[in-house]
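Support reply, case 0932

Customer input (verbatim):
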Amino acid sequence: MNLKSLKDLVTSKVGRQILTTQKHSPAILFAVGIAGVVGTAVLAARATLKLEEVLNEAEEDLKTARTLESVKYSDEDRQRDIVLIYLRTGTKIAKLYGPAILVGITTIAALTGSHVTLNRRNVGLAAAYAALDKGFKQYRDRVVNAFGKERDQEFRYGTRDVEIVEETKNGPVIKTIQRVGKDGASIYAKYFDESSPNWNRQPSYNVMFLKCQMSHANDLLRARGHVFLNEVYDMLGMKRTREGAVVGWVLGSGGDDYVDFGIFDPNNEGFRDFVNGWNDAVLLDFNVDGPIWDKI
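Our regenerated output:
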């Protein structure tokens, strides 16, 4: 290995370590801040233990300066000594609490730096998420314009033709229907099934519950102007997600202006199976407007 290769290797290693440190800088600064809080308290406590001794010494010196009587000790000398005693005492107190103040300032700087760094990253992530969502919607609009809404649904949900047997008056009939593909639902979709505390063995109850919750979500949207997806998850008894804290619905943002669970469609075979009790679960796919922090 020549010197240039060795230099490049060392530079690469150092650069990677710097990048790793920058990546974890919020956590490092926060840990330093927490340690600083403890250190400030300890140093301040130690200084306080010595404070009484300094104050007592100053009090004795002031008492002496105020009561000393001498021909050579004028009132001007007395006032000068009193000022010097106050200055000397103040200097001693500053030295006592100086380390605690210095550590406290460092602590505030570390905690502030952690907050600012995280805030900048969150703003950047929200902007990137919004740009990605906007690009996806524009792409879907071009697909709809070129091929139509049905083809857009096929591309988005990965629909496939499935043959089922349907009982009729004339006997069983083979019917071809479209079903959502295995990976066709959006990342926000969730199954409403027996894992939810609001699920019931009666299909009619489940349907009524879902309709009521969707109506409640729309009432909340109209009353407040925005709804987060996690709030809808809460209504349904589902676990919150990280995405749910960012995406949702905002009135007048260019979205649908209503909350939809993506199931109340007569052509939705999965919902039809759920309503008829043939399937204990139904996939809810929410029509979120995308990231809404920048729209509120």
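We compared this against your earlier run and they match. Two observations from our side: The mean pLDDT is 81. Residues 75-147 form the longest helix (73 residues). Please reopen the case if you see a mismatch on your end.
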